[in-house]
Write a sequence for this structure.
């Protein structure tokens, strides 16, 4: 698979030769990639390719074996998770991971825990309620009593409360009805238009590639391809492996 | 049994239950947030009792006033124990964490007991305040000031803790860490700081219980075990993970013990508590007071 030309933009998130293990198994093999400021970058690949491990390592929940994660001039891989959040790098984890026994409002307030986000929390809350009116309606309700779609909205809302510069989402469409998936993709687009850089892991490859400026393909812990979203949508190997098409012939 | 003596039994059950509740809340807090069982919690109750005893006998301070020094003192003891011992355990995961916490805190139980015996001797101590025999008399029911004061403070502390946990950022950070420590980290919470504050808060709550024990009953280096046991029964009643539910569960245990003691005989009081413990574990393992907290 060809490696496409890199876009001439400022480097924002840079991952260099990252090796990481998941339990006793090495999950990432010298992974290098970058996300430029203002981009939407998607990461696609089969189950067990190491996508979640990569996001968890960037977020500081996981220590890499070797390699670096840079945000501008800051070495993220040396920081504990809470300081990475202070840098504005925020992960919406796989499976949402809400504070189920707490209310919608308490979840959102906790999203704005860092000093930087806390001072702006009333303004941000208004913005989040505009994006997801259902959260405003249900603010006194316990998070674990909501539907899957509403929970995913709350998970994204909680992350936005932290004022992300880089928002990372791990499978935000997993198990949701198509209409809600549509809504969540719209919100991602809107958030990106407002200046938030997005790094997205998705099993829904078609929608991810349609949304993303650029994408990487991760297989068995290695980056095996990259390109713009459009290029990958028309790439034969990608179409066969991830989009369920027969190859274009002739 | 006359209605008066029944009411009297009930009221004394409430008083004892308040102490159970406060002792158990500290243990429930540490268990719920750090996911480790601190067997040495009763020893923190004991140390709190001694702090209060010495403040009374050396400085002449009323035990309800000396709480202002006893609580911060045990808070600091909690910080030190967390930094030296428990922070190494809290990093472990799952079963390894709970096993190690049991072993280490059991060891700490022995260390603290022997330390107390060496420093304070094995003599039984108690605080005899000037107003020890006095109290309110309502419809033939006696309510000693010491016990009434203990229950009132226990209630205020519970309300205060509820406010702290639900309406302040440090409190919400504790609840968030209890729910899901990784999600808490992803919200920007320094969970190791939360663990440290939680353990210290648990010790501070134990010291309040210890003060009440010293005022109401008596104190010796070996009282810890019984308070750990009582606190354990209460947190199973409340539902493990329910922090504030420990207070009503403590009251319930106190009342049930007192009434069954009056009807079946005082010798069986302790047995009743343990029977309830087993019944709840078998029939309703999620606890009686599971819900929001």
């Amino acid at each position: 698979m060809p490696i496409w030309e890199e876009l001439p933009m400022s480097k924002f998130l840079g991952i260099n030769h990252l090796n990481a293990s998941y339990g006793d198994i090495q999950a990432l093999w010298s992974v290098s990639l970058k996300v430029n400021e203002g981009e939407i970058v998607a990461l696609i690949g089969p189950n067990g390719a190491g996508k979640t491990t990569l996001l968890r390592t960037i977020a500081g929940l996981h220590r890499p074996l070797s390699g670096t994660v840079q945000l501008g001039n800051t070495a993220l891989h040396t920081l504990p998770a809470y300081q990475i959040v202070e840098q504005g790098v925020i992960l919406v984890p796989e499976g949402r991971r809400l504070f189920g026994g707490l209310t919608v409002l308490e979840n959102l307030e906790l999203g704005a825990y860092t000093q930087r986000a806390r001072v702006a929390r009333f303004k941000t809350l208004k913005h989040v309620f505009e994006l997801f009116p259902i959260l405003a309606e249900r603010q006194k309700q316990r998070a674990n009593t909501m539907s899957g779609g509403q929970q995913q909205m709350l998970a994204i809302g909680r992350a936005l409360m932290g004022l992300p510069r880089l928002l990372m989402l791990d499978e935000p469409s997993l198990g949701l009805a198509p209409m809600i998936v549509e809504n969540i993709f719209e919100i991602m687009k809107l958030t990106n238009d407002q200046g938030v850089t997005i790094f997205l892991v998705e099993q829904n490859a078609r929608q991810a590639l349609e949304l993303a400026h650029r994408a990487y393909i991760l297989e068995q812990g290695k980056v095996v391809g990259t390109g713009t979203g459009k290029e990958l949508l028309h790439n034969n190997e990608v179409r066969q492996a991830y989009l369920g098409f027969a190859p274009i012939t002739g | 049994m006359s209605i008066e003596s029944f009411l009297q039994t009930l009221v004394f059950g409430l008083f004892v239950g308040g102490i159970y509740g406060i002792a158990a809340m500290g243990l429930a807090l540490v268990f719920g947030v750090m996911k480790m069982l601190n067997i040495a919690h009763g020893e923190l109750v004991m140390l709190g009792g001694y702090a209060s005893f010495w403040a009374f006998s050396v400085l002449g301070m009323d035990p309800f006033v000396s709480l202002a020094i006893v609580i911060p003192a045990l808070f600091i003891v909690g910080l030190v124990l967390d930094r030296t011992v428990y922070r190494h355990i809290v990093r472990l995961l799952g079963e390894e964490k709970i096993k190690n916490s049991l072993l280490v805190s059991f060891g700490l139980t022995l260390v603290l007991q022997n330390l107390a015996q060496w420093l304070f001797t094995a003599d039984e101590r108690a605080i005899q305040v000037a107003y020890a025999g006095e109290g309110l008399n309502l419809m033939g029911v006696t309510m000693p000031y010491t016990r009434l004061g203990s229950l009132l403070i226990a209630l205020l502390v519970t309300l205060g803790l509820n406010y702290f946990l639900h309406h302040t950022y440090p409190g919400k950070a504790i609840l968030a860490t209890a729910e899901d420590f990784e999600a808490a980290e992803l919200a920007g919470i320094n969970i190791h700081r939360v663990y440290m504050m939680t353990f210290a808060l648990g010790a501070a709550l134990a010291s309040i219980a210890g003060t009440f024990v010293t005022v109401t009953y008596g104190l010796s280096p070996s009282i810890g075990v019984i308070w750990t046991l009582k606190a354990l029964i209460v947190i199973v009643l409340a539902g493990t993970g329910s922090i504030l539910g420990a207070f009503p569960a403590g009251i319930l245990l106190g009342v049930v013990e007192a009434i069954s003691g009056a009807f079946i005989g005082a010798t069986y009081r302790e047995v009743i508590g343990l029977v309830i413990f087993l019944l709840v574990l078998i029939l309703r393992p999620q606890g009686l007071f599971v819900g929001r907290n």
Chain B is about 75% helix and 5% strand. Chain B has one domain: 3-121+135-283. The first strand of chain B starts at residue 135 and ends at 138.
